[in-house]
Amino acid sequence: MSDFEKIYENQRIFENMIINKSKFYGGDQGNKDLKDLNDKEKTTLMKELILYLIKETTELLDAIGNYKMHKSKKDDPKVKEIPSEIADCFIFVLDFALVHGLSHEDLLKAVQEKQEINNQRQKNGY
Question: pLDDT digits over 95-116, tens only?
């Protein structure tokens, strides 16, 4: 099992634990899995996850510091926090894939395909 596969599986287990604590998703009534969510539940969960990702990206921005162009006083970047904030963002991206039933292979393939598209765009003056 690759490191990425382990990370992906650990996140799947964690998300299942979270939905099994939630009355909204019916997890409090038994052992529920992400794959058991109906479309409405998936949409609601995705909205929640997107909001969480926005929060995490602002925390990353704060950790980087000095992002306000109009500000003359320079902030000290919180360099030690940056890897953790990037990891938080990455985890929510994994959650998006998990909610939609993508395997780790599906996600890797989609990323590789998108990287190739982006590379071609740049080569063609995008």
Answer: 999 999 999 999 999 999 999 9
